[in-house]
Amino acid sequence: MSFINNWLRSDIQAINAYHVPPASDVIKLDAMESPFALPEDLIGQYLAYLADSELNRYPSPGADQLNQTLRELMEIPKEFGVLLGNGSDELIQLLALACAADDTILSVEPSFVMYDMIAKFTRLNYKGVALTKDYQLDLALMLQAISEHNPKLIFIAYPNNPTGNTFDRADIEVIIKSTDAMVILDEAYYAYAGDSFIGDIAKYPNLVVLRTVSKIGFAGLRLGLLIGSQETVSELDKLRLPYNINTLTQVSGNFLLKQKTEIKKNAAIIVEQRALLLEDLAKVNGLIAYPSQANFILFKAPNAQALFDYLKDNGVLIKNLSSAPKLTDCLRVTVGSPEQNQQFMQVVNKFYIQQGGTRD
Ligand SMILES: *Cc1c(COP(=O)(O)O)cnc(C)c1O
Fold first, then answer.
1. Positions in the chain short of pLDDT 50
2. Residue whose CB lies within 8 A of the most ligand 1 atoms, among 32, 33, 84, 89, for a mutation test
3. First vs last Cα of the chain: how many Å apart?
4. pLDDT recorded at residue 357
């Protein structure tokens, strides 16, 4: 037996590593990234801005300027606190670190896998409450699970990943009011959704909202934020590692995230493309495409594994969820640029035409 196998906690050995497939030379529609690069005419200015940063110094510890930039971009009211993380994943981990041994994290299933994984890393209990058949919240089941498991943290992705829908707002408010757990509304896809819970933070002391810049064009920056009452944020801030937001991220964010008009324009293009893609997918015989408030679409396809493989062989990478519980035959495609979406649809249509002879 190797050193590490002898040494490592057995529950960590049992975890399957988070798998990220290689993606050179493919149309990458698997990870909800934005297809839009920095506009050419901003590159010079951006580089000059970067050249001014002092990489021999530690970053600004509070990243106050970046904090302000994000508040303006996302229109966060002054009375709330904002805590920055190295991606919102880091903030999920920070919340887990705030828990005591034996505490429970509760979320819904299917949802974002990191809630469960981070519960495992930090030795907390995890309870995933099943959604209904059409991926809605099962309020009665949620309330029952909350009273049975007495969770410390309740994560609700809004819109949900990988299903793409938002849950009923009234149901969520009932959940928030029913518990003394901290309820985290994870709004990673806020830019593509019609509703947000930021405005509700003043009403519910146990509510915080997570956001990220990863799904609005800046996945490479690794920058997420937690929005809550000033009091909540200043207590949680004790758990943040010093300098967790590096200088390049701070400087880049202070330039790139000020392009509010451009960022909003890009989000509007994706929302428009989402509608077209949904229409095109629905036209394919046998496919069921689920409505989405995010920059991706979940769809159920007969022979999902074969379609996934065929897409990959033809240079289009999407996400295969077909072996996950409750997601039998499901695939998830990120909404890309108009050209990427057309190429994706062409391959999908070709697959079913080839299959045509054998399908009933
Ligand atoms: C992508 C995603 C995140 C992760 O965001 P990062 O800021 O890139 O760590 C968080 N929550 C949900 C629901 C996501 O889909």
1. 357-360
2. 89
3. 52
4. 45
Instruction: Report the amino acid identity of residue 40.
Output: E
Q: How far is CA 177 from the centre of its chain?
A: 25
Asked if residue 225 lies in contact with residue 214, where contact means CB atoms within 8 angstroms, the answer is no
| Ligand 1 binding pocket mutation candidate from 161, 223, 297 (most atoms within 8 A of CB) | 161
Buried b / exposed e along 78-99 (16+ C-beta atoms within 10 A): eebbbbbbbbbbbbbbbbbebb
- pLDDT tens sequence across 55-85: 999 999 999 999 999 999 999 999 999 999 9
Task: Pick the atom of ligand 1 nearest to 32's CA.
Answer: 1
Please work out whether the CB of residue 320 comes within 6 Å of at least one atom of ligand 1.
Answer: no
- Is the CB of 341 inside a 6 Å radius of any atom of ligand 1? no
What distance in Å separates the CA atoms of residue 240 and residue 30, rounded to the nearest whole number? 30
Cα gap 84→112, rounded to integer Å: 20
Alpha-helical regions (H) of the chain? 3-7, 10-13, 40-51, 64-74, 88-97, 114-121, 139-149, 169-178, 230-236, 247-256, 260-283, 304-313, 338-355
For residue 212, the ligand 1 atom closest to its alpha carbon is 7
- What lies within 8 Å, CB to CB, of 235 at 6+ separation is none
Residues in the chain: 360
Task: Phi first, then psi: give them for residue 175, nearest 5 degrees.
Answer: -60, -45
Task: Determine whether the shortest distance from the Cβ of 188 to ligand 1 is under 6 A.
Answer: yes
Q: Tell me: the pLDDT tens digits for 187-206?
A: 999 999 999 999 999 999 99
* Residue with CA at minimum distance from ligand 1 atom 5: 88
Contacts of 46 (CB under 8 A, 6+ apart): 38, 252, 255, 256
Please state, in angstroms and rounded to a whole number, the distance separating the CA atoms of residues 241 and 146: 31
The answer to whether residues 292 and 28 touch, using CB atoms and an 8 Å cutoff, is no
Ligand 1 pocket mutation pick from 84, 86, 88 by most atoms within 8 angstroms of CB: 88
